[in-house]
Each structure stands twice: as structure tokens, then as C-alpha cells.
Amino acid sequence: MGRSVQDSALFGVSRRTVLKAGAAAAAFATVGAPSILRAQTPAVKIGILQPVTGALAHDGDLGRLGAEMAINEINAAGGLKALGGAKIEMVFGDARSTPEAGTQEVERMQAEGVCAIVGGFASPICLAASQAAARYDLPYLVDVGVSDQIMARGLTNTFRFSPGFGKVTQVALDNLTKINELAGKPAKTVVLVHEDGLFGSGLAKLLQTELPKRGFEILETIAHPTPARDMSNVALRIRSLNPDLVIPSNYYGEFVLLARTMQQQRIKPKGVYAVLGGAASNGRFVKEFPQAAQNVIDCNHWHDPQNPQAQALRKAVEAQGKSFAYNVPLNYSNVLLLADAIERAGSADRKKIIEALNSSTFEGHIMPYGPTKFVNGQNEGATPINTQIQGEDIKVIFPEYFAEAKANFPAT
């Protein structure tokens, strides 16, 4: 978007003079040099959709942060090279924690001329928003939404770089089985606790089918709404059942509420093994409720802890006094993926971007994934990993290739 040195020289204005002149130079350019404005490369608009108000606001803020950091990084490095150094302009939409609001924001972004949309966070929002975007052949990159229903519809505009809950459940159970075996198989019984929406209910059904195949007995499955204001009855039921494991699948607020209630009631299972736990891989949970958070294991999205770029991103976020969670590296990586597709397409044309995404072998992300390969919009190289809250930090404990620490299991 910026004027080149050569353009400035044509009018006898050096780069230093332009920079010093600030607003005066901008006024000069507008009034005295309209040809320069015509020569500038227009910005490429991309939509960033996140729920930054309502029940999911904490996660939405983190998602927005990750996208912003990627956009700033791309622009600072010279913009989109294939488009003459065009800068990326973010068109932000607040999904307000509901599918209806997410759909409204897609319509607004369409009217504002975005070439693609990244985000959504929650499965119901992603499901509705990607469907709305499909009406305009508008590329939609799901950041988190794990419901496999999102990808099962065969929408040609919709891509998910991260794994869905089918893949996450498979990996979570494989890893749980290995962790349990290494500890001498102390865990045999399980209570499932899940939010009653698209994400939690779908995941619970998979777990109900697969856990018994691995030798685990499910004592009970407990559903709760989002938002939930009290977990006392859930905790009391867990106490009466006395399971070896509690497996929660819910969003941030409900996960924290459950963990704190269990702590207050001194309910201490051999392990809390979350599958896509809303707070279990979140720095804010560790910082604000360290006792309730201790030893919680999660199978979830997470960055590659050995990747220098990922390490730098985490430090940059924490240097701002903000918590770090998977939403940041996922949205960061999705924006980089989109920028790579635009570069290879050599265009902001939506159909060309979709073609570029379908043929993507993108490696510039910071996730612990295999080679990027989209099949019917789903990245086959995506996989979750296991983390555990140990002390004041979140450590990767499985698989061993990425591990920073050994699992503390059963919890001591």
C-alpha cells in the first residue's frame, strides 16, 4: 500500500521527506498527486470472524489476536509479493457467540468485498458461517470448529486446516491407552462430562462407542448447557460414582467452573483427561486457578513447542500480558495458509484462491502436523497432541517426539 521510493522521486519527494511530513504529505498526495494514488496496489481484504462478545468472548479474543499478529507480520515483511506488495486489510466480524450473528457478519463481509474468511471458533458458528459464505463461493477457513458435520456437507468453499473431532478422538484414545499402560493401567472407569451442543454431544457419542473398545467402563455421561452457572450437581454426581477418570469436553467457562467445583469439593480422580477441553490448554486457567488446573491432561490443538517461530509467537503474546492458548497459533497459521494460497494464485479472485488451497502443500505453519494435503476440504496432515498442566506451565507430554515433559499420571 505504501508509495515506492521511485514514485516519490518522480515528484521530487524523498522517502525521508515523506515520512517526516506525515499528515501533510498525505494531504499533498491526495490533492496534488492523484496519479500516485491510482498507482498504489489496492489492499486485499480478508474477513476475520470471531465471537468477541457473549459466552465465547475469551476464545474469540485469542483467535482475533492470532490473526492480527499474522497479518501484521505479513504486511511488515512487504505484503503479498505476487500482488505487487499489496497489504492485507482485516475486516473483522464479531460472531457474538451465536450462529445467527456469525451469518450476519458473513453477509456484511461479503458486501465489503473480502476475498476469504478465517475463523468462527465454535462448531455451530463455523457450520452456519461457512454455509452462508458458500452462497458467494467465498473461501472459508475454519480455525477451530471440530464438528465433522462441518466438512461432511461437501462445500467446495470450506477448508479446515486443523483436525476434526473424529481424528481428535482417535488420537486422544490411542494416547490415553498408552499413557495408562505405561502407568500400569490404574484407570478403568470413566465419567464423561460434555456441553450439550454440536461439539460436546458429537464428541460424547464417539467416546461412548470407542472407550469400551479400549477396556474402559463408562459409568455415566453427564451433559450440561453453555453457558452454565453452576456445576455443583455435576460434581456431586462425580463424587458418588468415584470414577478413575473424568473426561470433560466443553468450552472455557464451563471447564473452569467444573474444575474449581471439583477442587472445592475435594474430588480427586486419578486423572482429568480432557478431550478438546476448553480451558485445559489455556494459560489463563493456569494463571488464575493454579490449584484447580494442576495435572489436567488435554488432547487438543497445540503448537509445535520445538518450532522457533511458535516459541517467538508465544513470547510475544505473553509480553503483552495476555494468556496463550491454541486459538492463537491456529488462527496465526490459518492466515499464513491463506496468504500462501493468494501468493500462489497470484490473485485475490475467490475461485483461484479455492484452487490454490486445494493444491496446497503449505509448510510455513507452526503446528505439529504432517504434510498439508486437503481432501474434500479437510487437511489430512492435521493432528492433536497431549498437554498437561505442570506447575505454572502447560507442557507437551505426548507424543514423545514433541514431548517437553513426562506425564504425571496417575495424578500425585
UniProtKB/TrEMBL annotation:
Q: Enumerate the SUPFAM superfamilies for this protein.
A: Periplasmic binding protein-like I
* Annotated Pfam families: Peripla_BP_6
Transport as UniProt keyword: yes
Leucine-binding protein domain residues are 44-380
The record's PROSITE patterns line, in alphabetical order, gives: TAT
Its GO biological process annotations read: amino acid transport
Record protein name field: Amino acid/amide ABC transporter substrate-binding protein (HAAT family)
Task: Provide the species name.
Answer: Azospirillum brasilense
